[in-house]
Amino acid sequence: MDYFMKHLNHGMLCNLYENMLKPRMIEEKMLLLLRQGKISKWFSGIGQEAISVGVTMALNDDEYILPMHRNLAVFTTRGIPIKRLFAQWQGKASGFTKGRDRSFHFGTQDYKIVGMISHLGPQLGVADGIALAAKLKNKNQVTAVFTGDGGTSEGDFHEALNVASVWQLPVLFCVENNGYGLSTPTSEQYNCKNIADKGLGYGMESHIIDGNNILDVYTRISALIKDIRVNPRPVLIEFKTFRVRGHEEASGTKYVPQELINAWIKKDPLTNFENFLLKEQVLSESIMASMKKRIAEEINQHIEIINKEEYVVPNKTKELHDVFKNYKYQEVISGNNLKEIRLVDAISDGLKESMEKHEDLVIMGQDVAEYGGVFKITEGFIEKFGKERVRNTPICESAIVETAMGLSIAGIKSVVEMQFADFVSSGFNPVVNYLAKTHYRWGQNADVVIRMPCGGGIGAGPFHSQTNEAWFTKTPGLKVVYPAFPYDAKGLLITSINDPNPVLFFEHKGLYRRIRQDVPTSYYTLPLGKASIIRSGEAVTIVSYGAGVHWAMDTLNEHSEISADLIDLRTLQPLDIQTIYNSVKKTGKLIILQEDSMFGGIASDISALVAEHCFEFLDAPIKRVASLETPIPFSKQLEDQYLPIERFLLSLKELLAY
Length: 658
Ligand SMILES: Cc1ncc(C[n+]2csc(CCOP(=O)(O)OP(=O)(O)O)c2C)c(N)n1
Known about the structure:
alpha/beta, 7-stranded mixed sheet, 5-stranded parallel sheet, 42% helix, 16% strand, elongated, binds thiamine diphosphate
């Protein structure tokens, strides 16, 4: 203890103590309120406070910290007023999520805290992104992120550590090994001696720290953080500790041997530190008593304030409005210079010009740097923009999407290239749960475009041919763009990058090198949510997007007797339904052609909307034409049968004859 006395002054020792005491007292109050039925759920961090306090105090206030459900002490040590926490837990407006998310599932830029999503692991990759931003901006900052022993079994953990190590990101990965993940003991969670041993596998420095000793935690983490700031690298810390209460209060601790709990209660970090401070005469009993009195009064006052606050009054307009960050589309009109280029070139040009316009914009993806990406869209980019901004990634789709989220939190735009749209399934969770929901939850936008080379007709089989836009059009919070022509692709990609919201940008591989068009050589934008009318006619409305637009054009070219409106949706979310309504009101007949298999696709929703809103104008039942309800097969014969190209003409004729 002499060591600590020499290195920590009186004020610091008092701060460490008070920062542990306060969350303990809040928790004790919460347990009371829980018993009175005044709060619904509580995940206790009692006995683990030293870790939260030690790590938070070792960081500077402008360094991000990403806590979990047992890290109340992170929030209080960062100075969040108790009343705002109570408001958050009660779902009230003065909390952090306007009643939209519970407990510690929130972030706040004011306190540089990024709270978890329920899925535990994703925040580890988000920390990578924040740390990458710090590194790119030469900020000499460390990002600290927490997980439990259970969370280390998730793929996100492995991916995040791997990416952080390959890129030497200044992340402090803090694992609180508290013996159990819900009811699962560590012996059933992993099969190695220490979680810290895993660091070796990633080429990462790691340490084991006694998580119940505040002085150990604070001094060792402080020294490490100081070093990481000047010598950026990831470090894995395993804090040995114990969860002395249940997973959450309602679930009890029957499965935990009582002797184990008793033994760990003896190691309680707060009691032991209190005894130490008394013994060393740093604090007296009476000073401690007055501290406790002051904190108890503060807690009671703040609870009273929040008890009086009204519950959120539901307002549909406001809820819908907050799904996306406000973005006012800025029109940039193209110059007159045109050049005939392919779809693939248009995407490359849009990307290149966006990299020039946004000096911070980062591109991430597998093989996108020297190799130029498998479709060569980023060929030559590193020569122009450097390897820091055009980043080859390991095969870690989840961690890369999470990294993109982290970059956005730190104010940097990014474009992620999925090598094939099919592989987004390996990063699905952060797309639909993190990127899509964060603005609605706590007002943090995800300034990310995910490029999705998709589509069939090229004999690439079930895992290189899917057009999986429907996985995303159904998720509020995502924009979905799907151009069919080079001109649209360039303008819409530029707008997608300008838009501060998450955009899934679908690029049909079959069209990449087949479709050519005169495209302005200068930078220009096109608005999302505006369909284009490719052909005008009287007898029928044809709606499609992507390759379907070209199939419909081919059909109309071969059958010049058919007078049709052909609408290319261009963007699916937002959807320009009004253009469809206007056309259907004129023609009285609607056929929707979609490359994806039928059930649950966008064609079904368009069909339902038109049936609901234009029923009186329809002269025939709406037709949907789509691929078979099978995975997309490899052989040409099977794929031809799968795709709806031939069925489209038959259905169109049936509809015209109705
Ligand atoms: C992906 C996912 N699977 C399962 C759960 C349910 N769940 C919530 S917390 C938890 C245990 C987590 O254990 P650990 O990471 O050790 O943290 P601790 O609760 O012990 O602090 C489980 C299984 C979840 N939230 N997310």
